[in-house]
Input
Amino acid sequence: MNWNAILPELIVSLGILLTFLLELFLKKEYVKAFYLVGFATLFSAFISTFFVRVPAEMFFGGFSVDSLMLVGKMLLIGITGFLLLSAYDFFYKKNSVYGEHPYLFLIALLGLMVMLSSNNLAIIFVGLELASISMYILVGLFRGNYLSKEGAFKYLVMGTTGTSMFVLGSALVYASTGSLKLGTFAGGNSLFALGVFLIISAFALKVSSVPFHFWTPDAYEGAPTPTTSFLATVPKVAMYFLLVKLTAGLFSGFENWGVILSIMAVASMFYGNLMAYAQKSVKRLLAYSSIAHAGYFLIALTYTDKLLMGSLLFYVFVYALATLGAFTVLSVLEKKEGWTHHFLDFQGLRQEHPVLATAMAVFLFALIGLPPMAIFVGKLGIFMGLMKHSAWILGVLFALASVISAGYYLKVIVYMFLYKRERQMGEARLSGGEFATLITSALGVVVLGLFPHIVLNLIMRSL
Amino acid sequence: MENLLSLAIFLPLLNAATLAFIRDERFAKLSAIASSVVVFIISLILYLNFDFSKEGFQFETQIPWIKPLGISYHVGLDGMAVSLILMTALLFMAVFVWSIRVEDRPVLYTALFLMLEAACIGVFSALDLFLFYIFWEGMLIPMYFIIGFWGHERKVYAANKFFLYTFFGSLFLLLGLASIVVYGLFQTGTISFDYFYHLGLDYPLALQMVVFLLFGLAFAIKVPMWPFHTWLPDAHVEAPTAGSVILAGVLLKMGTFGFVRYSLPMFPEASKYYIPLIFTLSVIAIIYAAMMAIAQNHMKRLIAYSSISHMGIVTLGTFAFDGNALNGAIYMMVAHGLSSAALFFAAGFIYDRIHSYNMNDLGGLAKYVPTFTILFFVSGLAGIGLPGLASFVAEFLILLGTFKLHPIWAFIAGTGMILGAAYFLYMFKRVMLEEETISEHRREKWRALRDVEVHHIVPFVLILFSAFLMGLYPAPFVKIMEHTTKLVLGG
Output
């Protein structure tokens, strides 16, 4: 057996056990230590990915890694690492230091990594559930905060629905093909079609696409901000890496998959973008923006095409960087006394926090899709992919939705830069970890825009 | 020589970057003037060394950049680009001199204008579609903040409108880019964003028709052509003087530049097919905008509408498919860049002194600011195309070329130009003359006015000198522009 294949997962699991034990012995003041252990774990896991020889199979084919999924894991580990760095100070200042945080993040990551490393629906399910359950807890971990509990509960109920759809879908697929492995099709079989349809719905829920998006704004708003930034980045990246695999290995067995995905995609784009205008809280606005982005991403899955898939994965990654940055800015600001994320709180932010405001502007301009920020390369790639299949209507709708989205991102920028500060609030200082995260994501977004091939090559080569 | 062009693009950017570390007001202003002078000298050297008898682009540099997508850093100049870059460098120099007295956040102000300068020169010199798009969008953020920070009362509205309108066009441009790149991929099996690679591809008519519209939308918004012009008056009215100057002088030219550089050579059949559409929109723009200009009370709004009208003449000449008309159109881009810049400087001077653009608040100024009166009047004459000034040559060439093939359109457009004289003289009358009708109180105020100072005179002199030069001795300028005409129309 090739034990290398499971090396990153093993290291993450060890790290989880270690933080779990440490939490029993260490006092609350040493909260930083948990996060540092978590970061060290992720760092070694990241290094270990270089030692994985792909493609590899273990456990009688139940666990398999190919180069694309390995790239996926590297990106996931990287993002989670920076997320941990940005998180500790927030929980410390908010007086809700729980040792559970670092290892729950790690468990969720572990689940997603397991999910990526299988071609078997049952094992994908195990990974997915491991990640989901830890995320339900993470959302609710602002004990004593009503919104947090409400968000967690909504997420739990909706998420469980998604899970059951996934299970039922897998069962139907199994019933029609006799196998849970990806890549076995039963063409023209209505049971199979229904199974695929259910699985698509389940993933639509996980990536918060219309019509399964209802949990998103509440969970995003209610969760502690670092958790929100986790929810908005790491699982999303993982889901799309998985979806790329599923599109080739499962969805394409059902001839109308493209139509269903396009309808959902278009609905999400417009619903998300239009609803974002009605929001008064920037955090909630970003939640709706992530619904809209789910639409942009799903559009790329309507054809099995290397160019589309490659651009999609690149797009998701840089989107995750920009979102991580934006939520980190929010979590720094939330350390202020009385901060609510309302637009009026942001008014004239430039005067009080020029660095934070500039960083936020970089991330928002990136999300709009302006060059030289990287998301524009993703957009260009998806445009090219759509044009390759002469999908003019989808292309034009995508362009229109992007224009609509520019308005509400600009609104945040206008409040931060063009209005005068009126509210006075307490201080908010950047911790070292938050600074590192902000710098890395801002640089990443810009550098990857000018030199996208650093990551794009990695993805394209392994597709 | 080849590297000089890249230096002209990156020097302002470098200067802007140093301002992030050295946040000193004096350093910012002086270094900006210095670097813009250097850029101007570079572009003058390029202009003088430009060999118009040689076919093809010159001063080319090509460095591989994003290999898997076939993107390279590829810049080079043709006759049109080198002329426009010279004008751009001149205007930015003028703007930095003019802005020497800015007090509100001067370092940021300078840095944004420097970024804008880099983007503008980049747009004119890019020979790679990807690079072009980056520069094209690169001017959006600086201009947005220039309007948003230093604008007047409704600045936020104007900045947003400017941003969204432009962004709307650019996304369709991006969609168009994507589709021709993919077409290239199907035809040759390689992805490339290179301009010459795409010139070599013969797009089928159906693709040309669609992509022409996608590109055309972006360019038409930028020009702006009727009915996409509504952002321009708002942006001009709210922008600070220097912003208006660059907006009218340089940014609008990007649209017509795009038509000549990309639409005509890449989609020749579609361009011919859409002639009636473009002509209709151009003529509507010429007449309608001129009439709107007459109806304005706000000086900047009037000049903005006059810009729309003049840009209509440019698009008319561009799509006449005639050597003279195209020469004229390119001449007009430069001439209008100069004249509208001078007029916006004039409006800016009045605002500096009296804090109003409203013509009802003005009147009878001529006696109190005599030097300014002359400068203002000459700028206006440059705008309406009096013989001896640059616009005259341009309008003459355009009408000459258009008249051969499309006499009726040319006739209608010609009448529009008469309106041009009307609105300028009307504005001049209401702002500068009629001293006997103004109240004693106002006269009292006017008496305290200071006439133009050095930092006002220098920009005017630079611009008006060029306008006279181009008006009195057009031959060498036309020769260089003809270089592009030959490339585009062939032969």
User: Anything to note?
Assistant: The longest helix of chain B spans residues 155-188. Chain B has 21 helices and two strands.
